[in-house]
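Run: sequence + zinc ion -> complex structure.
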Amino acid sequence: MDGEEYVGRKFRTVFLERDLRLDESTLKEFLRVSRALASEDMAEANAGNISVRESEGMLIKAGGRSFKELMREDIVKVVDYDEKTNTAKVCGRVEPSSETPMHWMIYQEFPEVNAVVHAHDQLVLKKQGLAGELGITITKKKVSYGTLEQAREVVEALRKSDYVLIRDHGSVSVGRNLGEALDELMKVHRRFEDEGEV
Ligand SMILES: [Zn+2]
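>> structure
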């Protein structure tokens, strides 16, 4: 893949509190979906991230943590992300995913969305040239990861579909819960899988 090299987070983090209490059922679902992504081979180099909406902000996977071995401590709560100052306010012990701005903006724009799954789906990327033919929404420009520009491209594309392929980067799907978003992501993955090599 000719994607951009990972250089770290492109926003600032302010930690409000180190302690984060997690609801048991939310935690369980978070870990279930993380492991499902790992077992489907979509967790290359620990890239990709998932989040759920909270009454105040969102819970999101920490940056660079393994989906396969995700633990309670690897989930943080982002209570605010300010575009102007490019700053995230966080409860938890570790830095949130580098793609926090994209997740945040999706929840701001789509009140019906409660969960976001993002994976660097190598199989789909390899065959991204087939997106048009398969009726899959794909972003137009190649954008740099973790930026507001990427977030805006994805939000625009999500107006058309619950699944979006970010050109040269990966897949994003949204749903009313994590299970639904994961199912959508896998459904598209299988469609590409059924297509021959290109
Ligand atoms: Zn990504």
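>> summary
Residues 178-194 form the longest helix (17 residues). The radius of gyration is 16 Å.
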